[in-house]
Amino acid sequence: MERDIIFEKLDWDSAFFGINVCRIRSDISGEGVLGQVLQALHAAGIDLAYYSAERPLQPGTTGTSLFDIVPVDRKLTYFKPVNPLVQPVPSVAFYSGSEPDAALVRLAILSGTYSRFQVDHRIGRAAFEKLYTQWIINSVHRSIAQEVLIHREDGAIRGFVTLGGKAPVADIGLIATDPAYQGKGIGRQLMVAAENWFAVRQYTRIQVITQFDNIPARRLYERCGYGAAAPEYFYHFWNKTGHRLVLQEH
User: Measured at the alpha carbon of residue 231, what is the angle toward residues 136 and 42, in degrees to the nearest 5?
Assistant: First the structure.
C-alpha cells in the first residue's frame, strides 16, 4: 500500500508559510487508507497537507492523534464557451503599473474573503493578507497571470480581474469589486472585458473557480452565462505534534 500513497511537497507554499506543506495526490477514501497516509505525512515531517476530492470525507472525520483534519472549502468550477463576437468594454483598461497600488492590493485581499486561507483560522489574518498581496504582485509582474484588467471610477481602481490560461482553456483568476461600488455592473463589465480579451487570443472556453459559499460571485458568473460542475471538497491536514500549528505571526 505504501507505493500507492502519493503526496507532493509544495516548495512555494512551504517557503511562504515557513512550514513543510504538501498536496495529497492519492485517494484516501478506501478502508484504512487515511491512517496510512497520515503516518506517511508524519514520517516525512509534513506540517500542513492539502487534500481535495469529489466526495466529502466521512462525517466525523476530524483526524487522529497525528493530524487535525479541517474542512476548509467546497469549490465550484464554472465554465463557459467563449463568444468570439463579444465586444471590448470601454470602461475597463489594462493595469499599466509595474507594482500594484494600494487600491489594487486592497481589492486583491477582498477577493480572498471566502478562500480556504481565510477560512482556516490557523493560517491567521496576517498570513492570509500577505498571501493575497503576493498573488497580486505576482499577477502584475505577469509571473502567474497574463494580464490584469481594471475598472476605474472617481480616479481610483474600483474593480479588477486577473487573466491567464493555457489554450484552448482560459482562466479567470482573482476578481473583486469595491463594496462601495457594487451594484453598478462593474463585475459584469470586467467579465465581459475578460471574455473579449480571451476571444481576441482565440481561446475557446473559459473557466473560473470560486467557493460554494461565495454567493455574490456565483450569481455574477451565472448571470454571465457560466455553468458549474460538481463541487470539490477541500481539507487542511494539520500536524498536531509540530510546534508551528498557528501561523498568526507570519
Answer: 75
Residue 248 included in any domain: no
Total domains in the fold of the chain: 2
> Omega of the bond prior to 168 within 30 degrees of 0, cis?
yes
What is the residue whose three cell numbers read 469589486? Answer: 177
Question: From residue 168, how far is each of 1, 88, 143, 162 by CA, in Å?
Answer: 38, 20, 20, 17
Q: pLDDT per residue over 93-130, tens digit each?
A: 999 999 999 999 999 999 999 999 999 999 999 999 99
**Phi then psi for 122, rounded to 5 degrees?**
-70, -25
Q: Which domain, by its residues, includes 56?
A: 2-73+233-239
- pLDDT tens profile 176-212: 999 999 999 999 999 999 999 999 999 999 999 999 9
With respect to residue 250, please indicate whether it lies within any of the assigned structural domains.
Answer: no
- Alpha-carbon span 49 to 247, nearest angstrom: 14
Taking the C-alpha atoms of residue 1 and residue 248, their distance in angstroms, rounded to an integer, is 37
3-state SS record for the chain: CHHHCCEEECHHHHHHHCCCEEEECCCCCCCCHHHHHHHHHHHCCCCEEEEEECCCCCCCCCECCCEEEEEEEEEEEEEEECCCCCCCCCCEEECCCCCCCHHHHHHHHHHCCCCHHHHCCCCCHHHHHHHHHHHHHHHHCCCCCCEEEEEEECCEEEEEEEEEEECCEEEEEEEEECHHHCCCCHHHHHHHHHHHHHHHCCCCEEEEEEECCCHHHHHHHHHCCCEECCCEEEEEEEECCCCCCCCCCC
Tell me: do 89 and 197 sit in the same domain: yes
